[in-house]
Design a protein that fits this description.
Blueprint lengths: L2 E2 L5 H10 L4 H13 L13 H10 E2 L5 E6 L5 E8 L2 E9 L4 E4 L3 E3 L8 H5 L1 E4 L2 H18 L9 E4 L9 H12 L11 E5 L3 H10 L3 E5 L5 H7 L8 H11 L8 E7 L7 H13 L7 E7 L13 H13 L4 E3 L21 H14 L17 E2 L1
Parallel strand pairs: 1-2, 6-9, 9-10, 10-11, 11-12, 12-13, 13-14
Antiparallel strand pairs: 3-4, 4-5, 5-6, 7-8, 14-15
Bound molecules: iron/sulfur cluster (SF4).
Iron/sulfur cluster binds next to α4.
Length: 387
């Protein structure tokens, strides 16, 4: 099978080049061509020796993911649907703001965790993405955006592993992808601008702290185990106390001195003032000294058959007020891209109905040939507001 160079971090690419009898600096050159310049053909790589340029196509490729569709939101958010084969597709979302461009990247086709409020969770798990499939989302989006915005500068300044899937349940593929995102010869993101979001896979939170401590967001969504068991089934394996212990262990290595807790606001389920008070007590008292954190309240994005409703705005603000007055910085996330189903928890890709997925993907392949609206940064981006 031909090797896809998108599957390698620099260490892996160096080992591959050494097998070909090439020195490390050749791997650095290749890595820069691929990730910094967006090259997908070896004959573009003019500073590589001609003999190497001729040899590479017989042993490796640079294979991006086929794009099935692109949707542009009125607020400038862009969502791509990528074909990952066998009737599966994953989604990637670009969110432009005044001072940054954030890409939300998927790590799995579907998700095995099955959170009640999450569209991806409802469709079940299909498979892990490879390192190359994770990186291909960033590779494509970055170079597409540079071309269409006519920008010589990097457009994507932040990456959040918050798309489809639980990244820490695909750790082997995730780690080289994160290292490539951080590498100065590739995307050069700072560790503060690269966030892994997890529903609480405790052992791999510890591994990440050792291997590649980037910013961490934890999907909490409930202030007690009984409620969290019903919303995030993984809680039955790693209950809240264990999860918060793992957060405390993570912090010394983290690039920020706090953990972000995500809390999806569900009408009548987890949004009452007593839940806010319980949450406040939890994060302020856990382990005796509490967990340094910020809390992000996420308005629920309804999807068919969820049986859940978004909390009224007043309930969200009241909830945030309890936390802020208790000394925990709390923000309410603005919904972005909801006109194209790109908002948090709406990413469903195409694995829900596997019997029809292949048919729908084939239809999309036909329609992608049609012209799409020219991409721009869109109207002034919306900032997160403080509750
Ligand atoms: S919220 Fe995250 S972990 Fe939970 S089902 Fe959705 S993708 Fe999986």
């Amino acid at each position: 099978m031909t090797v896809n160079l998108l599957d390698f971090d620099l260490e892996g690419l160096t080992a591959f080049c050494e097998q070909l009898g090439e020195k490390r600096f050749r791997a650095v050159q290749l890595f820069r061509w691929i990730h910094q310049k967006g090259a997908s053909r070896f004959d573009e790589m003019t500073d590589l020796a001609k003999s190497l340029r001729e040899k590479l196509p017989s042993v490796c490729t640079i294979t991006p993911l086929p794009v099935l569709s692109r949707q542009d939101s009125a607020d400038g958010t862009i969502k791509w649907l990528f074909d990952v084969g066998d009737g599966n597709a994953v989604e990637t979302v670009f969110i432009p703001e005044d001072d940054r461009g954030t890409l939300c990247v998927s790590s799995q086709a579907g998700c095995a965790v099955g959170c009640r409020f999450c569209s991806t969770g409802h469709q079940g798990f299909s498979r892990n993405l490879s390192t190359g499939e994770i990186l291909a989302q960033l590779w494509y989006a970055e170079h597409f955006l540079r071309r269409h915005l006519n920008s010589p500068e990097r457009v994507i300044t932040n990456v959040v592993m918050m798309g489809m899937g639980e990244p820490l349940q695909n750790y082997g593929a995730l780690l080289p992808a994160l290292r490539t995102m951080l590498d100065d010869h590739a995307y050069g993101l700072s560790r503060r601008r690269l966030t892994v979001s997890t529903s609480g896979v405790v052992p791999f939170m510890d591994r990440l702290a050792q291997d590649c401590p980037v910013a961490l967001a934890v999907s909490l969504h409930a202030p007690n185990d009984a409620l969290r068991d019903s919303l995030v089934p993984l809680n039955r394996k790693y209950p809240i106390a264990e999860l918060l212990d793992a957060c405390l262990r993570y912090l010394p290595a983290a690039p920020r001195d706090f953990i972000t807790f995500e809390y999806c606001m569900l009408d009548g389920v987890n949004d009452q003032p007593e839940h806010a008070q319980q949450l406040l007590d939890l994060v302020r008292r856990h382990g005796g000294r509490g967990v340094p954190c910020k809390i992000n309240l996420i308005p629920f994005n309804p999807f068919p058959d969820s049986g859940l409703r978004c909390s009224p705005r007043a309930a969200v603000l009241r909830f945030g007020q309890v936390l802020n007055e208790g000394g925990v910085v709390t923000t309410v996330r603005k919904t972005r891209g909801d006109d194209i189903d790109a908002a948090c928890g709406q990413l469903a890709g195409d694995v829900l109905d596997r019997t029809n997925a292949a048919k729908r993907l084939a239809q999309r392949r036909q329609t992608i040939e049609q012209p799409v609206r020219v991409v721009g940064r869109g109207p002034a981006p919306v900032k997160e507001g403080q509750a």
